[in-house]
Specification:
binds alpha-D-glucose-1-phosphate-6-vanadate, seven-stranded mixed sheet, binds cobalt (II) ion, TATA-Binding Protein, 3 domains, Alpha-D-Glucose-1,6-Bisphosphate, Chain A, domain 3, seven-stranded antiparallel sheet, alpha/beta
Length: 544
């Protein structure tokens, strides 16, 4: 077997976004494109941090071929050990755990998360550091710089590597070990939750679940954990066979794309809990019987009832949410007397807070929640949190929600996405908002007055790094707000995200639909940002 330097040239635009490098599959399929990026990851690692790397992906189209290319480059570079999930499959939280458990120097995740997969669809790659966290900006920047000056990569002429569980190979300086995709993660979950208690509630029919795997990577995880270990019946699991094109669907667990589950949960026959996960297993949607739990509320309720979750029995210490996520968490944190951090969008910003032990629970409005057991958001873990809460409190989800709103007020929350914008127009909208600050201040809607317009910057309290330009906030005198930011995960045109939050403290007004409740504010948001004038879009493409 030869190891040879391969001459190459930089590709423009290999710049990681909110969560890694995401492009159309055919972009990744170009000769050298993926190898260049992987070599740049290796180059960004100090020489003494090239001992062990984890590799795994969500199984989408091109996952198998990409895994072989990555192995060629890692062997070419003499990485001492590579741990790869069977069939090249690992959920994103499972990669994070495996990195931590095996003291690896980092890991490579192949995923475009909730974006569709298949020919002509999306693919992605990201690097996680030794603590299992998505690489911080300084590292992604170094990787990007490298891609822009690369002239060669090292590749080994490997035969096709059969990624059957238990296989172990030795090529040149490298040992490749193929690990079961689910084992380690399932063991971690068993160590964090009281499986006996949940299982007992299920057997006594006090607790039931319907989980939709959306034909994505969580299928095998859900089957092992919910069916084999907790004893839920087959009918509790829907779409749990992982497919390369996610069954043609959009593996995004929200009311639009997990419609079937949502509709079922709104019927009298629904189980106590409904849940879905995304392409790579880090997102989750939580539903009760006839109750949708917004991701921001799910985070706040997990914090409120953390005593029902064994992992958090010793207390939360601190919690964190991304800036656009609703302030429901802040009110619970205040009540619990723990600190609450506000970070930019993207899980990488939670890494330092978790590593320092400043926070134990984090979440984002985009259907992401997790704790200090890994450094990624974690879909199946969130479902186990809810099963623990329900097994312990024995109250329906709808009642827990109502009780939360009565005690803390309800953040009526929703997000309007304007998709398919030309990049310069999207930027114009953002720039104008800041420029027109003076004329936006003092404007009124729904009896609320705009009291501030500002651009969010974040200084990391641990390493002092600063992230500028993380979205524009329009704040009202009653703590309601509108946030604008541009998506960093798309693969073609720009998406403008408009986040709407209104806080209702009157318990008699807390039963409305959040999307309808925010429609007037959404129109106001379109108007003050001149979205219609600049882009021609008078309505958002998606409301979630
Ligand atoms: C979106 C979400 C963000 C999330 C990111 C990755 O980013 O808004 O909260 O962290 O996706 O999630 P953006 O830049 O498009 O708004 V996943 O499940 O794709 O790893
Ligand atoms: Co995801």
């Amino acid at each position: 077997m030869d190891i040879r330097p391969v001459a190459t040239k930089p590709f423009a635009g290999q710049k990681p976004g909110t969560s890694g490098l995401r492009k159309k599959v055919d972009v990744f399929q170009q000769p050298h494109y993926l190898a260049n990026f992987v070599q740049s990851i290796v180059n960004s690692l100090p020489r003494d941090q090239r001992d062990c790397l984890v590799v795994g992906g969500d199984g989408r189209y091109f996952n198998a071929e990409a895994t072989q290319i990555i192995l060629q480059v890692l062997v070419g570079n003499g990485i001492k050990q590579v741990l790869v999930g069977a069939g090249g499959l690992l959920s994103t939280p499972a990669v994070s755990h495996l990195i931590r458990k095996s003291n690896a120097n980092g890991g490579i995740v192949l995923s475009a998360s909730h974006n569709p997969g298949g020919p002509g669809k999306d693919f992605g790659i990201k690097f996680n550091n030794a603590s299992g966290s998505p690489a911080p900006e300084a590292v992604t920047q170094a990787i990007y710089q490298n891609t822009q000056s690369i002239s060669q990569y090292l590749a080994a002429d490997l035969p096709p590597v059969d990624l059957a569980v238990g296989e172990e190979y030795r090529f040149a300086e490298t040992t490749i070990k193929v690990v079961d995709s689910v084992d380690d993660y399932a063991q971690l979950m068993q160590s964090l939750f009281d499986f006996d208690k949940i299982s007992e509630a299920i057997q006594s029919t006090r607790l039931s679940l319907c989980f939709d795997g959306m034909h994505a990577v969580t299928g095998p995880y859900a089957t092992r954990i919910f069916k084999d270990l907790l004893g839920l019946p087959d009918r509790a699991l829907k779409n749990c066979v992982a497919l390369a094109d996610f069954g043609g669907g959009h593996p995004d667990p929200n009311r639009v794309y997990a419609r079937e589950l949502y509709d079922f949960m709104m019927t009298d026959e629904a189980p106590e809990l409904g849940a879905a996960s995304d392409g790579d297993g880090d997102r989750n949607m939580i539903l009760g019987r006839k109750a949708f739990v917004s991701p921001s509320d799910s985070l706040a309720l997990i914090a409120q009832h953390h005593q029902s979750i064994p992992q958090f029995k010793s207390g939360l210490v601190g919690v964190a949410r991304s800036m656009p996520t609703s302030t429901a968490l802040d009110r619970v944190a205040q009540h619990l007397n723990v600190s609450c951090y506000e970070t930019p969008t993207g899980w990488k910003f939670f890494g330092n807070l978790l590593d320092e032990g400043l926070v134990r629970l984090c979440g984002e409005e985009s259907f992401g929640t997790s704790g200090d057991h890994v450094r990624e958001k974690d879909g199946v873990w969130t479902v186990l949190c809810w099963l623990s809460i329900l097994a312990d409190l024995q109250r329906p989800v709808s009642e827990l929600l109502r009780q939360h709103w009565t005690a803390f007020g309800r953040s009526y929350y929703c997000r309007h996405d304007y998709e398919g914008l030309e990049a310069d127009k999207a930027q114009t909208i953002m720039d104008q908002l800041v420029r027109n600050r003076g004329s936006i201040l003092g404007r009124m809607v729904n009896g609320m007055t705009v009291s501030d317009v500002n651009v969010f910057s974040y200084e990391d309290p641990v390493d002092g790094s600063v992230a500028h330009n993380q979205g524009v906030r329009v704040q009202f005198d009653d703590q309601s707000r509108v946030v604008y930011r541009l998506s960093g995960t798309g693969t073609d045109a720009a998406t403008l995200r408009v986040y709407l939050e209104q806080i209702e403290r009157d318990a008699t007004n807390q039963g409305a639909d959040a999307i309808e409740y925010n429609d007037v504010l959404g129109e106001f948001a379109n108007h003050i940002a001149q979205i219609r004038e600049v882009s021609g879009l008078s309505q958002p493409s998606v409301k979630t």
